[in-house]
């Protein structure tokens, strides 16, 4: 295993602990007495589920980009990465729309513990999605600029691991925050 991939796995491990702490805090603080805070009723499960499908689809497109890079197809890798960026951008846009709607309904980070926990947890995830999109755009730029070998040898596996991690974390967040609000 190369050191870049090892470094990314160590980074992902440390980030997993941050997410675990945020998820535990969310559950602890938003369920006083075992009951979910009433503010959770403002969450839009259906819309978020649709945007979640975009994020999960991006794992598929990232895997297709990975296959193309292993075949030596610069053009194929770029095409699949562009699609991955589009899907990730749709997801993050959906999160922004959710935030805007909640803020207009006076569900804010400072309103109550639910708002604080919700915005901190989902915002931390959104920051990771944005970081993953930036890394993908960098790979696309490098590949378009003629540095396909650098992308192929150094970056791709690490960025791909990171992107799959971000998607996997959302499985837990979506299940606990959104599915948990309707159950």
Description:
The protein is elongated, with a radius of gyration of 18 Å. The longest helix is centred in the last third of the chain and has 35 residues, at 148-182. The protein has helices at residues 3-30, 45-70, 74-104, 113-144, 148-182. It is an all-alpha fold and 183 residues long.
Brief description of this entry?
This protein has 183 residues and is mainly alpha-helical.
Key features?
5 helices; 183 residues
Radius of gyration: 18 Å
**Overall average pLDDT:** 92
Largest sheet: none
Number of strands: 0
Name the helicity range.
Answer: over 70%
The portion of residues forming beta strands comes to under 5%
Outline, from the CA principal axes?
elongated
Q: End-to-end span in angstroms?
A: 43 Å
What's the tally of helices? 5
The H/E string reads: HHHHH
Low-confidence stretches: none
Alpha-beta content class: mainly alpha
Give a topology summary:
Layout: H1 3-30, H2 45-70, H3 74-104, H4 113-144, H5 148-182
């Amino acid at each position: 295993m190369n050191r870049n991939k090892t470094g990314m796995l160590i980074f992902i491990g440390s980030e997993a602990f941050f997410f675990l702490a945020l998820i535990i805090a969310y559950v602890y603080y938003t369920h006083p007495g075992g009951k979910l805070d009433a503010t959770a009723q403002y969450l839009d499960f259906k819309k978020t589920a649709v945007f979640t499908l975009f994020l999960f689809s991006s794992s598929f497109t990232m895997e297709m980009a990975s296959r193309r890079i292993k075949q030596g197809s610069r053009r194929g890798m770029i095409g699949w990465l562009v699609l991955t960026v589009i899907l990730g951008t749709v997801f993050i846009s959906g999160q922004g729309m959710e935030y805007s709607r909640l803020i207009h309904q006076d569900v804010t980070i400072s309103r109550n513990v639910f708002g604080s926990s919700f915005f901190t947890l989902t915002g931390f995830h959104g920051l990771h999605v944005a970081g993953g999109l930036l890394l993908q755009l960098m790979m696309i730029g490098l590949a378009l600029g003629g540095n396909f070998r650098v992308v192929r040898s150094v970056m791709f596996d690490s960025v791909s691991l990171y992107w799959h991690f971000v998607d996997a974390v959302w499985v837990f967040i979506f299940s606990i925050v959104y599915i948990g609000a309707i159950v």
